[in-house]
Fold this protein.
Amino acid sequence: MRRVDGVVGNVDDDPELAEAVAAHERGGTLERVVLDDVERRRSRLRVTTEAGTELGVLVDRPELTAGDVLLVEDDRAVVVAFEPREAFVVEFPAAEAAVSTAVEFGHRVGNQHWDVAVDGDTVYVPVEADRAIIEDVLGPYLPSGATARYETVEAERFIEDADGSGAGGDSGGDHDHSHGGDHDNGHGEHSHGHGDDRDHSHDRQSASGGDE
């Protein structure tokens, strides 16, 4: 097992390092370490790259970031990537996204200590609890005309950038965070219409697609 003392750098911050990593990718010698949300926060960890190289990593920063380079040598480079995450995605019609609704929705998310990311009129909440719990907590506060679905997105969507932006910020829609198109995990896209006389139990069944 190779020992790695500290991160070499990040491809997004160092053009020369990015080019070195790109050269390894072109040459077929780039290896990736895919981490989950817990692993990226550890100060020490043992990992195995997708190519089978075992590394013992001593992290010299608060947490690892996608694009961090753990190793760059003549015969290989190792870079960090993150596992995609399932998210509860809500699209608010612009006309219906009233301030009071947004505040109440955000309050409910905050009470659960869930992360949230916003991209225009779309809100992403990572699935960190049973789907039924998410739908019970958030379903009653979706305005009429809003739609909700489950989708697999890039983990970076929920990770704060070094300058404090990122999670909860607007990604601007400059890049696609989905994997292989929209994923509904068997639920498909469905509407959570809620009027004043809404039936919450019916809404929860609709949100889960009736197949939970």
Q: What stands out?
A: The chain has four helices and twelve strands.
